[in-house]
Structure formats: structure tokens, C-alpha cells
Design a protein that fits this description.
The chain has 137 residues and is of the alpha/beta class. It is built from six helices and five strands. It has a five-stranded mixed sheet, with helices on both faces.
């Protein structure tokens, strides 16, 4: 498990932009089974999370005409039980961190895996999400 002093600033990058921090399996189930749209970010300490995923997600939610009803996050390697439960909702996709998923009425409708994040700029991640928001939100 990563040290809290390393994880907290990375969590704050999302929570200070309107994301709810999910720490338990019950909180994950409640959030991802909610009606409407829910954006989930599986956060991570890796460079692609810092350089593309988190900035891209924040860009998207700040500039979206249509936004998800709910925005939630759990931290891989830290919120172990919450991430395990979130990954159960992401099947058939394999575990990935970072990962970004959009749910509509409890169903997974859009997924961005780590291999779709690595080597791509934050603007590309944001554009991908903005298109998903237009379609599903």
C-alpha cells in the first residue's frame, strides 16, 4: 500500500474538482449502481495518471457542455477493497490503473484503459471523454 503522504495530493487533484473519494466496496456499489451517469476514475501513482489521466479528466469535466451526474474515484494500491469492487463493475475489461469509466444507470457504457492513456496527451483523453459525455450524458 502506498504511503498516505504520497497518495493524498493525487487524490486531491480529483476531489478538489468535484470527485467523491470512494473508500469502501459499499460506497463503490452505491455510486456505480446509481441512476443517471457516473464517471469513475481509478487513480494511480504512475506517470500516465499524473501526466494524462488526471489532467485529462479534470479538463473534460471543466469544459463539458454535458457532464456526468456523479464523479467518483478510488485509488489503486491504496483503497484496495474499493478498487477491487470497482474492477468487478468494469468486467469484462481486465484490471487497469489508471482507468476511466462512464456508467449510465448502473451499466458500463464507455471505458478508457491504461493502454489508451499511456503516451497520449491529456487533451486527447479529455476529447475522448467529452465525446462520451455528449453521447451518454
Amino acid at each position: 500500500m502506498y504511503p498516505t503522504e504520497i497518495v493524498n495530493p493525487m487524490k486531491a487533484e480529483l476531489t478538489s474538482n468535484g470527485f467523491e473519494d470512494l473508500r469502501t466496496p459499499e460506497a463503490v456499489d452505491s455510486a456505480l449502481n446509481a441512476s443517471g451517469t457516473t464517471l469513475l476514475m481509478i487513480n494511480s501513482v504512475c506517470g500516465c495518471a499524473a501526466g494524462a489521466a488526471r489532467p485529462g479528466v479534470v479538463m473534460a469535466v471543466k469544459h463539458a457542455n454535458k457532464k456526468p451526474n456523479n464523479m467518483v474515484t478510488a485509488f489503486a494500491g491504496y483503497d484496495l477493497d474499493a478498487v477491487k469492487q470497482a474492477r468487478a463493475h468494469l468486467l469484462p475489461y481486465p484490471p487497469s490503473s489508471p482507468a476511466i469509466a462512464l456508467f449510465k444507470d448502473g451499466k458500463l457504457v464507455h471505458m478508457i484503459e491504461r493502454h489508451n492513456i499511456e503516451g497520449r496527451p491529456a487533451q486527447m483523453i479529455a476529447q475522448n471523454l467529452l465525446e462520451a459525455f455528449e453521447t451518454y450524458c
